[in-house]
Amino acid sequence: MSNTNELEVVAAMIVRDGMLLLAQRGPQGDQSGLWEFPGGKVDAGESQPQALKRELMEELAIDAVIGDYIASESRVVGERKINLHAWLVTDFTGEPTALCHQSLVWVEPPEAFSFALAPADIPLLEAYLQR
Description:
two-stranded antiparallel sheet; 8-oxo-7,8-dihydrodeoxyguanosine triphosphate pyrophosphatase activity
C-alpha cells in the first residue's frame, strides 16, 4: 500500500485528578456516537505533539502540554490505513469544551471500557492502563 492511502492521526489521553477525558463523536462523520480520545490528523511538516497541541486547541479550546507517548494502533478503514498515536496530557490551561464533539465526560480509566469506544481507541486505553 502506498503512503498516499495512509493517514497519521494523534489522540490525547487527557488526565486530571486521576480521571480520563472521553469525547463523543458528533452525528456527522465516521463512527458517529462512539466515544474516543480527542485529537486529529497530523498535517504535513508537523510533529505528532505539534499536531495534537493544535487539534486540542481547535476541538476542546485548551492549551495542552503534550506529555509521554503511550502507544500506537493501525487500522484499515475502507481504502485507507489509519495510524493512531496516543499521547498523555496531564497539564493544560483552559476548560475542555466540546467544540466538535456532542459530549465530553470524565471517567475513572477502567470505567472507559463501559462506553462505546471507537475500536482503535480500545488498545490505546489498554496500553495506558498497563503503564
